[in-house]
Amino acid sequence: MGIQEGTLLFEPSEAQIENSHITSYRTWLQEYKQIQTNDYHTLWKWSVEDLDTFWESIWEYFNVQSHQPYQNVRSGNQIIGTKWFPEATINYTEHVFRNKSLSTPAIIHTSENREQQEVTWEKLYQDTAALQKTLKKQGIQKGDRVACYAPNIYETVVAFLATASLGAIWSSASPDFGTQSVMERFQQIEPKAMITVDGYSYNGKKYNRLDVVKALQAALPSLKTTIAIPYLNKQADFSDCIHPISWHEATTCEEKLEMSYTPVAFNDPLWILYSSGTTGKPKPIVHSQGGILLEHLKAIHLHLDLGPGSRFFWFTTTGWMMWNFLVGGLLTGSSIILYDGSPAYPDKQVLWRLAEQTKMNVFGTSASFITTCMNENISPKNDFDLSHLKNISSTGSPLSPEGFAWCYSHLKNDIWVSSVSGGTDVCTAFLLGSPTQPVYAGEIQCAGLGAKIESFDEDGNSIIDEIGELVLTAPFPSMPIYFWNDESGLRMYHSYFDTFPGVWCHGDYIKLTKRNTTVIYGRSDATINRGGVRIGTSEIYRVTDEVTAVKDSLIVDLPRENGDSITALFVVLKDEEKLTDTIEQEIKQQLRTHCSPRHVPTHIYEVRELPQTLNGKKVEIPVKKILMGQDPTTVMNKGSLINPESLDYFIELAKRI
């Protein structure tokens, strides 16, 4: 706890600012649009006040190709129902392969059971063209859904690009998802084709998934064909699958192929992502080809400063939106780096070793990974050559000031730390980094260009330097075009627009500072309310992470009829540790000292493990509802958890309290 939130940690040099892509964009704006911006904030302010000109400039700057010209940047001014570039027809994959003449690798990939390989743009193009041809033969066409049950491997990227090239709709689930979780996703969208592996490896252990694949296919009567990838076992038997075609057969062609691209409307679907599904069936969130194309070009090129020759990595699975974001790196001509496996196998340095071997420029990860490295006293700069690494990006949960400081102490003293925040809902981050801005401990550098982010109090007033709800008060291209099978639009409306009519309420607890940085304090529906003061859960976790005996923690606030509340802190302790009075008093004293007396829990419980979603996030609200006596089957979908058995403790505790 030796660093305060807001401590200045890094300032980019004049050369870094001058050579950044965002500076090139500002220069282009001045030369071709006569738009003068003095710094990042004036650029952002213009981008949200003149949305049409800004997004049209992004279209022109990146030379977006339309098979039919657009006439209007958007239809209507309302945040709900806005259509962007409504007359345009485009294709996402076509924009990826504008880069196929590059001499740098398109993809670098490795996994627990595969050696590291580099793939040229030409090979990626030919494999995608061959798979496109196979999918066409199987009758896959515009609007059909293609479901993928495969990990973060080369074949999955090929499969996505081939799907999108046809105007078909992509949807993926990671093979570490349980049978029920995948069924609940894919049954909603009725896929026509399925791409699958036979299994996967994690933490040195092999998991055969052929029985799961068989069960999935039996539950999907819409399926007409299966593309089978023998990933775990080269001799895997896919004979029980519906019309199986081996990956080798599907992507082998004796002659050079030329791809064709099916033009689709700018607002037609590209893919279907899913909410975590913690309290029911996952919401199938549909994003448009054009909205994702524009947003990922902007976010990855301008905010992450990536372009041809760059090397871009994010530790992710195909069940998290960051996989889709990572693939977007191909749009900028970057080489993307794929890793399938555990971040702790064969040792806890595996990803830092990968950073050295691949000469990684941007290392994307989760805040929890950085916290783990910090708690394990890992110091990568002592063991690896990180000279090529210029940025470490973090998302998934707020990165603590100590996490920021660890990056400067144990990676590089000139590293650019970029904490970002967004979500599956928009498949990007609203709050991003900028290579031209300073880095302050615990703070996100800026709101993304074109994203009109504000913080609202309970009455819907915009506030600065106070904690409020993260809202978006103007349309944004990568908002969902709809939820699948939500013809009335009510499910989507209730998900985002109930709290403040006509305003997107994201569900995060945020502070916008006077210097235009932001701080995320956790989910707003999970905040602690003690004596009328709202406390973000991330403030609690920041302190408990520093207690030597504590491995992980989760806190919930349980209101009582008398207006008081029980604040219960659940802790997972490190090996051999037991919750003693001494440890309990240390936790309380640290919270009292570094936060306030209001942050001190009324009760502390030791648990063996905490429930986590398939994306590794804590599930505070379902735990709270269970402890308040609600039926566990209605408040928590166990299939959305990595460790469903972890709920048993809380169900039993609810009976006692």
Automatic annotation (TrEMBL):
- The kind of enzyme this is, by top-level EC class, is ligase
Record-annotated AMP-dependent synthetase/ligase domain positions: 104-475
Domain AMP-binding enzyme C-terminal as annotated: residue spans: 546-617
* Keyword Ligase set for record: yes
Q: Which residues form a coiled coil?
A: none
Q: Which residues form the Acetyl-coenzyme A synthetase N-terminal domain?
A: 40-95
Record keywords, A-Z: ATP-binding, Ligase, Nucleotide-binding
Q: List the Gene Ontology MF annotations in alphabetical order.
A: acetoacetate-CoA ligase activity
Q: What is its EC number?
A: 6.2.1.16
Give the protein name, as stated in the record. Acetoacetate--CoA ligase
